[in-house]
Every structure is written in C-alpha cells, then in structure tokens.
Design brief:
membrane, mainly alpha, single chain
Length: 183
C-alpha cells in the first residue's frame, strides 16, 4: 500500500512558510475589506435599532459595494494560491496531536470551508445565478462572514509565532535551489 507523502517531500519554495505567510497577509487584508464593507451594506439594508447609518450620498454605497465585490473576486485566486502553498501541511503527522494542534486543524477547516462558501456564493450572486443557491443569500453570506472572521482570528492567534518568523525571514530564491539540484 502506498504511503501518503510527507511535508518534506514537497521541496519547492512555493510550499514554504514565507510565501504562505505573505499570501495570508494579502488574503486577510482582502477579507477584512470585504467584511467591513459587507457589514456596512448589511446595516444599511437592515438597520439595527439605535444604529442608523446614513444612506447618502448614493455614490457611497456604490463605492462600498464596488470594494466588496472587487476584493471578494481578488480573494479567490489569493485563496487558491495560499491553499497550494500550505498544501503539504495537510500531510503532517500526527493528524491531531495535542489540543492546540486539534484546535489549529479545526479552525483551519472552518476557515477554508467558510472562505470558499463566501467567495463562491458571492460570485454566484454577482452573476445573478440565483437558481443555484436555494437559500437566502444575504442571511447566509452575512452569517458565514462572522464565522470566517472568527476562524481567521483563531488561525492567526495560533500561528502567530510561525507567521512572525516567516515574515521577518527573506524569501527563498528559486535560483539557489536550481543550482543545488533541489526541485
């Protein structure tokens, strides 16, 4: 029976923590813009008692929605690139290990699932392909945005030492790897 690959089997610098952390910063920034503009939009459409947002000028809503759609659309290739960069970590053993490792795996699973749901359902909504959804888009999108933000916060809190080290270290030069014969 073939054995699953190990993280050290992936030698490309595209799978390193440096690139993964940098992609994560860009992805988190895009998600933050999407989240803030989405909350503003939600509060304008469904005001909360005692918290009334101004509805004018009309171009303000267009700007927030434009930012929401543009950063959401840009998040999809960023998410795919980050998933590719972090892919070898799926093969780390033990799968769960201690409580912190189990929490990391759970938060990552929730984060990936909610991020893909938000981005794909948002694209379906922009395309106005409502027959595919079969549920209340605005309510589900808004609720999962809170789940995604919580999962991002948990993920960053758990991975902060790794993120800090990866962002302060220089990125690996692929030319150096080619000269040494590594793939």
């Amino acid at each position: 029976m073939p054995q699953p690959p190990r993280p050290e089997d992936f030698r490309s610098p595209l799978h390193g923590p440096g690139l993964t952390a940098r992609l994560g910063v860009w992805l988190a920034a895009a998600f933050l813009v999407c989240f803030v503009t989405g909350v503003v939009s939600h509060l304008q459409q469904d005001p909360v008692a005692g918290l009334v947002l101004p509805t004018g000028p009309a171009w303000g809503y267009r700007v927030t929605q434009g930012l929401h759609v543009v950063t959401g659309t840009a998040s999809l290739p960023l998410l795919l690139a980050k998933m590719y960069a972090a892919y070898p970590r799926l093969f780390e053993r033990p799968l769960l290990g201690g409580p912190l490792r189990a929490l990391e795996r759970l938060a990552t699973g929730v984060l990936v699932a909610s991020a893909f749901f938000l981005l794909l359902s948002g694209l379906v909504n922009v395309a106005q392909w409502y027959a595919v959804l079969g549920f209340g888009f605005r309510q589900a999108h808004f609720a999962l945005a809170w789940v995604a933000v919580g999962a991002i916060a948990t993920h960053v809190a758990i991975k902060l030492p790794v993120i800090r080290d990866a962002l302060t270290a220089p990125l690996e030069d692929p030319a150096d790897r080619a000269r040494t014969g590594l793939r």
